[in-house]
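Extended Data, record Secondary thiamine-phosphate synthase enzyme
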Amino acid sequence: MKVITRTLRLATVDAIALIDISADVDRLFQACGLRDGVLTLMSPHTTAHINLNEREPQLQQDMLDFLMRLVARDGDYRHNRAPVDGRDNAHSHLMGLLMNATESVPFADGKLLLGAWQSVFFVELDGPRAERQVHLQFLGQ
């Protein structure tokens, strides 16, 4: 069994965005040379997450609209009264309660076993940010 760890770095330009990182993930997977095992993706951020979902523009906009309706940016949040890093981003943390920091994707015969409609998304909830990261750990043979 081998363990290979890589980090994907990306910049975000929107306050809230679904960024399809599937091609980057597949490129890193192909470079690792493993055939069978499992990939774990992890966002080390409290206001950015990993999600498997369908890449379809209208649905992606529906998802963004849903998040913004669910948690108002201008709510009266305690965190915004004394922000730790100068950002009034309580809404971003609250949206994040509904998401995962990690996702696992099995792979077999040199292929990621994503469903026909699944893409890997980096979900930015507090952008824009000059640098975000996704850690990828491949465990396999």
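Summary. The domain at 2-140 is CATH 2.60.120.460 (Jelly Rolls).
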